[in-house]
Design brief:
Helix content: 55-70%
Structural class: mainly alpha
Shape: globular
Number of helices: 10
Order of helices and strands: HHHHHHHHHH
Radius of gyration: 17 Å
Distance between the termini: 38 Å
Largest sheet: none
Number of domains: 1
Amino acid sequence: MPDKPMDCALHHEKLKEKQRVIRDRFSTELTLRVHRGLSWFGRACEQGDDDDVRFILLWIAFNATYATEIDADVGNDREKFRLFFRTLIDLDPDKRIYGLVWSRFSNEVRMLLDNRYVFAPFWAHQNGVPGNSDWDDRLSRSKRAVAKAMAQQDTPTILSILFDRLYVLRNQLVHGGATWGSKVNRDQVRDGAAILMNLVPIFIDIMMDNSDHPWGMPFYPVVD
């Protein structure tokens, strides 16, 4: 799995070569998802040491692959995430996703899931949104749910909650809620980028290996 830009670039080239060999069997929707996802993943591999920009590029790569409109209802998004991850895990006989979550990045995942700075109700409370004064209790309940999922090694649930947290981080960066290169809250940006850099190419690879699965048309198809 890619740790450095050079490793990432080599992994990207291998995926591109695989795409060129088997893309004739792809449906239109899978062709779009893979082509778009690989384009942004490849750009992220060229980014060097800029974790802020790399995270944003990798999130775009994920969303190009996931390819759905993000709703305002976080709970609804989490269910969509869970179903998407459930599908990928069911189509992953080598358990590559499982290995990354439970072995490679287990500490980073735990830290992100416990971090109030990527917990949406915390920021809603800071901004005076009614109904979020109990954010700390809600975070405690979330931690208990995470602990249960961890104990059961429930990968789809952990991934859906993790990407819920990463979505908060994505919003913080994209909407100007953070300073570029800031030393504040660097851990979640660095860890989030590393997790995405390793998970996104696996997602794309699994989708290419299962071209007969009905992945569905992206929300923004190509229109003449």
